Amino acid sequence: MNVITSYTELQQFQASCAAEMEELHKGTQINVSLATCSIAAGARETYAALEDELQQQGLIDVTLRSSGCMCFCYAEPTVEIVRPGDAPLIFGGVDEKKSSPSGADLRQTRRSGRRDSAVTKPQADAYRHRQLRRNQP
Predict the structure, then answer these.
(1) Angle between helices 102-112 and 43-57 (to 10 degrees)
(2) 33 beta partners
């Protein structure tokens, strides 16, 4: 990496980083929590099943990623679906069987408005905040 020596170079670098980030966040993203508790609950198998299903369905606009702890140990393995323009959804208890028809079922769940086993990102953040406040002395 080169040393940035002027404000113009800094602006160019910032623009290139912003373009890279925009490209990374294009399309639908599926984040599978692969923290210790989720691995113990079978998240690696869930990740592999989702990966296979995405390949079988030929969904090239969907990016599958692993993430760290989502603070939902009781609901592991957890899967977060992030679609451009929509609030992120977090699904709990997603095992291999639930993830096999993933593409169609997860899209249908989002479109129909049903949220049987899903919470939105703001709901998840509010839950984490309440848990942190309870654990403070």
Answers:
(1) 90
(2) 67
DSSP β-ladder status, 62-67 and 28-33: parallel
Helix (H, G, I), strand (E, B) or coil at 79: strand
Token pair 């369905």: residue: 57
Query: Rounded to 5 degrees, what are φ and ψ at 66?
Result: -100, 150
Burial of 116 (0-12, 13-18, 19+ CB in 10 A): exposed
Helix residue ranges per DSSP H, 76-116: 96-99, 102-112
Q: Residue 60 corresponds to which tokens in the numbers above?
A: 């090239």
pTM as predicted: 0.63
Q: What is the pLDDT of residues 27-78, one digit of tens each?
A: 888 999 999 989 999 999 999 999 988 888 888 888 899 998 888 888 888 9
Question: Domain 26-135 carries which CATH code?
Answer: 3.40.30.10
